[in-house]
Specification:
It is a single chain. The protein contains nine helices and 14 strands. The chain is an alpha/beta fold and 312 residues long. The strands form four sheets. The chain has an eight-stranded mixed β-sheet, sandwiched between helices.
């Protein structure tokens, strides 16, 4: 009797897997050959299980015929190195105040450590990932960014805003079947090196590559309808909203969430059809968003878009 029950249970499990694959089929068809830009950050970067799951997701996308591009952050790793060196750090408007001394550490950690780690994770599965910095091949050109605090512009040091994106090197890598992994450091026309918010860098790259999606991994389930400055687990996550509605909500968001939602706005206003904020603490969140009918997290759409979570 036990053997029969096990056999039935095995068939049921196999059927469930088959149904999952069938559900993914329209999405595989829709996004085959499309570029997807993914910002890798938050807890997904420091939890080993989540790091491994992320690398698996990226390789799955590559084998499924999509063209993934990874743009990574590195806040926890930068903080740890600054602490070891005894260099104080602070934030303003959700961005790191970056002195020249801090910039040296940021550049070293992002390009020399984190980028190599992400490349290595993906390349456990094959010779796919190629690391590069926003400095390489003039991928990102930036100038100094001022933030507005209490109605006044404030200089927060070597923090840049992106003025131009030259995606030629990225396109060459994608055409060669590679997975570009980009650290968000950029140069100005005069040679200054700037720290770029990874969310903003991912959005600008998504626009330049005519990407089908921007996906931002973070440490909350998505955008909450009643955002009280922190993630309220009892609140309702907004499944999808337009750029106009998001713009009206921005002043009430927490500092940490503002750059992520501004990146989504930059992407969809620049021609990217969809931008998503996902909970990177959930293993395989990227696959759940792209290849299931219901999706997860919050999807931002351009004003007037008739896009839905259902495949065409």
């Amino acid at each position: 009797m036990t053997a029969v029950a096990d056999n039935i249970g095995g068939r049921a499990g196999a059927l469930a897997k088959a149904e999952t694959l069938i559900e993914a089929l329209p999405w595989l068809n829709r996004f085959h050959g499309e570029t997807v830009v993914i910002k890798f950050g938050g807890n997904a970067m420091v939890n080993e299980e989540l790091r491994l799951a992320f690398a698996q997701d990226i390789v799955f996308l590559r084998y499924a015929g999509l063209r993934p591009v990874v743009v990574h952050g590195g806040g926890p790793q930068i903080n740890a190195q600054l602490d070891r060196l005894g260099v104080p750090t602070s934030f303003a408007a959700g961005l790191r105040v970056t002195t020249p001394e801090t910039m040296d550490v940021v550049r070293m950690v992002l390009t020399g450590q984190v980028n190599r780690d992400v490349v290595g994770l993906i390349n456990r599965h094959g010779p796919f990932a190629v690391g590069m910095s926003g400095e390489d091949a003039n991928l990102l050109t930036a100038s100094r960014k001022l933030v507005v605090m209490d109605g006044q512009p404030v200089d927060i040091g070597m923090v840049g805003q992106i003025d131009a994106v030259d995606p030629g090197a990225l396109r060459a890598l994608l055409d060669d079947g590679r997975v570009p992994v980009v650290s968000p450091v950029a140069r100005s026309d005069s040679g200054e090196v700037y720290n770029i918010n990874a969310d903003s860098a991912a959005a600008a790259i998504a626009v330049a590559l005519d990407a089908a999606k921007l996906v931002v991994l973070t440490d909350v389930e998505g955008l909450y309808a009643d955002w009280g400055g922190h993630a309220d687990s009892s609140g309702d996550v907004i499944s999808e909203l337009t750029a106009g509605r998001l713009t009206s909500m921005l002043p009430g968001l927490s500092e940490g969430m503002i750059p992520k939602m501004e990146a989504c706005l930059l992407a969809v206003n620049g021609g990217v059809p969809q931008a998503h904020v996902l909970d990177g603490r959930q293993p395989h969140a990227i696959l759940l968003e792209i290849f299931t009918d219901s999706g997860i997290g919050t999807m931002v759409l351009p004003d007037g878009s008739d896009e839905m979570r259902q495949p065409r």
